[in-house]
Amino acid sequence: MAITASSPAREQLREHEKPMSWARAVVIAGGLLFATAILLGQIPSYFFTVTTASNMQHEQAGFLDLGLLSIGLGVLALELALLYDPKPILPWPLFAAAGVVIAAIGAFFLFQVTTGAWHMFLPDVQSVVHGANVTTTYWPTAGQYYLFNPIWFQAKSIDLGALGLLALVIGLGMFSFAVLNPLTLSGKLNGPIREYTVRVCLAASIAIIAAWLTIFTFAPVVFDPNNFVTATIGNVLLFVALALAALALQVWLLPVMVNARAQFMPGVYLHGVVGLLGNVGVPLILIWLLTYPVLFWAHGWDSTQFWVQCAQVTNIPGSCSFSPFTGYIICAIVFSIPFGLMLAGLYFWGTRRNMVVLGGTFGLIWVGLAVALIHIDTTDSSTTAQIPFGLMLAAGIVIVAFVWTWATQREFAPTRAEPLGCTGQWLMLGTLLLIYLMGFSLLSMPSFFEIEALALFYKAGPGNLHDAFWGVALMGGLAALQMTFLVKRRPM
Fold first, then answer.
1. Which of 29, 67, 129, 284 has CA 20 to 30 A from 470's CA?
2. Under a CB-based contact definition with an 8 Å cutoff, are residues 27 and 290 in contact?
């Protein structure tokens, strides 16, 4: 594959392109499949699950994480807008220093939580049974299992581990965007440096994920999630895979964005600052802040529990949540937002293609990081196995974001749009089916607290052999083999 920036002559073809090659069409269709399945299928299910659970712990922790994630990505988009104009408005070392500070804070949070110096949740209440005696521990304040007032933040409503991971990712992103700024604007990032960096990062990321998945399938004790040392080693490896995939996307996309600044930069501000920060991040933070008092207020007049239901009369609003009827309304509202955006994207595909592509890239990155953060939201040691699966899924979704963004540019396949013939068309249909089955297998690996939301429910078979492992290996391998046939220059 030729991973190079487009020439000015080709730049004019991007918004109104000529017929594309079959290989490129297949990859774009696969990207739309994943984006549709994730954005329209999984996200509304997650919102329904957490708002109708037995209490609002997952909802409060999750909404805070997703709100701060949206704000963090919006800040990165603002950094792009400020640094990658022809004349940067602010010096890049300023953003690099801020990124180092934020990443250091996130690493400190993770260190404190993983070593046990801090509890993972704030506030936290834990009960330990010793024979006939029960010892209850409150953290950080003795005797207090809520913040400020019982109707504001219940126990375990703030996930310090997820906040630490988020700060680490956003800080590293700010640092890498800043450091790449002088290389990109001077043109030094083009050529072999860019090509080899992207190839090495992607290959290493995929290799780490494949190695971890294979080892965990056939020798799970090596990465035992209940062992501190082995779990930490496995989680660090998967985080490195996630960081390498994100770096590959950065290194490849930045020169493309700079060379077509008029097409990409308005989209960066629209999708990142206005969209994620203003229209997603701020509302989620407000919902996180106000949901619990609203539940307490609604319970006072909703005597039939039509809108709000409470499991324990002695624990209100600690055992309260929205009713399934309210959850369906919330699910419909959440579904309508990405559905409307995808319809708008299809409408503007022929005239504002790069802006639509960038919106899909932002959406996939947001979802990938959201999966990692939400899977850290665990309540006991038996569910810590979800942390590596969340990181693995996040890295996989970022790789999908790279392939999606790369395939929509003319650098993807230099082949001409030639007729495939009967054999080629069957190969194209089969490749799309294999890509679907491979993605279904990948998303079938984890199981997430009570009801699976951001990935499908999954249980290991005899001997801990994962059916999904064989699905990813076989379907992914066959899809890659057929893609090599589709990329050939000769008609079939």
1. 29
2. no
Which three-class secondary structure state does DSSP give residue 54? coil
Which ranges of 310-420 would DSSP assign to H, the alpha helix? 324-347, 353-376, 386-407
What pLDDT does residue 213 have?
Answer: 81
- Phi-psi sector, 191: left (phi>0), alpha (psi -120 to 50), beta: left
Which DSSP helix (H) or strand (E) runs through 200? helix 192-218
CA–centroid distance for 328 within its chain = 24
Q: Which residues contact 394 (CB under 8 A, 6 or more apart)?
A: 242, 368, 369, 371, 372
Q: CA 367 to CA 35: how far, in whole Å?
A: 9
What is the pLDDT of the chain when averaged over all its residues? 78
The neighbouring-strand residues paired with 147 are: 153
In whole angstroms, how far apart are CA 127 and each of 146, 319, 372, 443? 15, 17, 28, 34
d(CA 28, CA 250): 19
Q: How far is CA 361 from the centre of its chain?
A: 11
Place of tokens 């492992």: 469
**What is the Cα–Cα distance from 92 to 368, expressed in whole angstroms?**
27
| Encoded amino acid at 210, one letter | A
Query: Which H or E run includes 136?
Result: strand 133-139
What is the model's pLDDT at position 131? 65
Close Cβ partners of 475 (under 8 Å, ≥ 6 residues apart): 434, 435, 437, 438, 441
Structure tokens at 201: 């990062």
Residues 432-453, buried b or exposed e (16+ Cβ, 10 A)?
A: bebbbbbbebbbbbbbbbeebb
Tokens 């929509």 — which residue?
408
Task: Give the number of C-alpha atoms closer than 13 A to the C-alpha of residue 227, restricted to the C-beta side.
Answer: 9
Task: Select from 3, 82, 76, 15 the least CA-distant residue to 255.
Answer: 3
Question: In 3-state terms, what secondary structure has residue 487?
Answer: helix
139 beta partners: 124
What CA–CA distance (Å, rounded) separates 167 from 140?
A: 21
Query: Is 416 within 8 Å of 428 (Cβ atoms)?
Result: no
Q: Give the residue with greater pLDDT, 356 vs 386.
A: 356
How far apart are alpha carbons 295 and 308 in whole angstroms?
7
Q: Would you mind telling me the total number of residues written for the chain in this entry? A: 492
Contact 251, 189 (CB under 8 A): yes
pLDDT digits (tens, 9 = 90+) for 76-107: 999 998 888 777 778 899 999 999 999 999 99
Tokens representing 117 are: 């110096």
The pLDDT-based confidence of 385 (bands split at 50, 70, 90) is low
Neighbours of 383 (CB within 10 A): 15
